[in-house]
Amino acid sequence: MSEYVEIFEVGPRDGLQNEQRQIPAADKIALIDTLSRAGFRRIEAASFVSPKWVPQMADGAEVMAGIARAPGVRYAALAPNLRGYEGARDAGADEVAIFASASEGFSKANLNASITESLERFAVVAKAAKADGMAVRGYVSCVTDCPFDGVVPPSDVARVVASLRALGCYEISLGDTIGRGTPEAVDAMLDAVLGEADAAALAGHFHDTSGRALDNVDVALARGLRVFDAAVGGLGGCPYAPGAAGNVATERLMAHLEANGHATGLDAAIVAEAAAMARAMRGG
Ligand code: HMG
Ligand code: MG
After folding, report:
1. Quick check: CB of 175 below 6 Å from ligand 1?
2. 3-282 CATH, one of 3.30.260.10, 3.40.50.410, 3.20.20.70, 3.40.30.10
3. Among residues 198, 209, 210, 212, which one has the least CA distance to residue 169?
């Protein structure tokens, strides 16, 4: 039997957050409802961040209230601080994600905080989540390269992974935020990170700026990772990461994994339908 590899769909959040045109909540809801029929176990549906920083995600509560929840699907939301956590929880998120950076330059640009300050804020979120019995996922951005600081040492990534583990994150997603990571750099990064966390507690989050995302997935698979974030239609980028292109496209990643003998549990026709919807939303 082929081994299951999970694709964590992040298109409605990481994909859409960077679009300049304000996408109506109804369109986001329709996209999530289509994704809910495709076989994903987890879908990142919204962010509860400052609307001054990311206006596109300001309608998170409306989106969460409007989706038709499919049984067996967990709907996740980003929470940068306690206010964001409470917004996500009150909107019915099944889990929240806290998001630190391995580089100081990106931490400042994305969160207006040093790495240490951001982890202090995330500790408050993690404590509140624990009290509520809410699962917390962690992200580390800029795991190989930072748009401001350049090459990021693997030991810096490992340190932030250890901090997020200590805060109780059940899984940590390793983000090549600007898609500049080479397979060699990803392998060296994973070598350091695996000293702090088991492969079963890690996910790969590759952006495809340099067309290396699938090569980087293969490196991570060889290191034992079995969860990868992706966005239908290859949507995305990050408003605070100049030059970042989209996430690896779910449909490409799915085809790649299945061609290599892995099972994704996804329905290709529904994924294609969602990818077409996502592409239609792009650019506007
Ligand atoms: P700040 O300006 O330092 O903080 O932002 P603040 O507390 O002064 O807040 C500014 C304003 O936002 C205030 O409003 C707050 O009330 C409000 P004002 O008083 O001026 O009217 N505010 C909020 N509103 C709603 N929800 C909230 C919230 N918090 C404050 N939760 C802050 C600090 C962390 C808030 C800001 O920097 C922020 O929201 N950053 C998030 C940026 C973001 O979402 N980036 C994209 C996601 S990360 C990513 O894409 C990478 C990833 O995909 C992995 C990878 O690819 O590597 C995860
Ligand atoms: Mg991302």
Report:
1. yes
2. 3.20.20.70
3. 198
